[in-house]
Amino acid sequence: MNIGLIAHDSKKELMVQFCIAYCGIMSHHNLCSTGTTGKLIAEATGLNIKRFLSGSQGGDQQIASLIACNEIDLLLFFRDPLTPKAHEPNETTLLRLCDVHNIPMATNIATAEVLIHGLERGDLDWRMIVNQGL
Ligand SMILES: O=C(CO)COP(=O)(O)O
């Protein structure tokens, strides 16, 4: 499965801790991320991550284009709902595209925990069937 990882600055440490905790599961999948998020995760875990630009530089849109092409199976985007971002419209587009394409998406760690366990259990295997049809 292809997993996208993004975290706002105030949630990056949480994302790193999450990836440390679930490194064993995540290492069996293809990971991609926005720039700084991926750098921090890779440094902390040694996970192999394809890194795109920072969100503010268009990284959100790079991941959004993968979602539009059905090339992301799970998005974990740890958002900070309290701090407005200049590139918020891009983030809204990203989340919208997940809904357009029925991509499982977590915007906080509580949902991410459920999805990562579901991923391990095979609950997201239907994504492979969807992708075979493309
Ligand atoms: O800006 C982001 C989310 O919108 C994330 O980008 P970075 O991972 O480069 O900080």
Automatic annotation (TrEMBL):
PROSITE patterns found in the cross-reference section: MGS
Its EC number(s): 4.2.3.3
Catalysed transformations (reactions): dihydroxyacetone phosphate = methylglyoxal + phosphate
Gene3D superfamilies: Methylglyoxal synthase-like domain
Any one Gene Ontology molecular-function term assigned to this protein's record: methylglyoxal synthase activity
Active-site annotation: D60 (proton donor/acceptor)
Entry keywords, A to Z: Lyase
GO cellular component, one term: cytosol
Pfam families cross-referenced by the UniProt entry: MGS (PF02142)
Domain of life: Bacteria
Domain MGS-like: 1-134
Positions with a binding annotation for substrate: H8, K12, T34, G35, T36, T37, S54, G55, H87
A GO BP entry: methylglyoxal biosynthetic process
Function per UniProt: Catalyzes the formation of methylglyoxal from dihydroxyacetone phosphate.
Protein family membership: Belongs to the methylglyoxal synthase family.
UniProt-recorded name of the protein: Methylglyoxal synthase
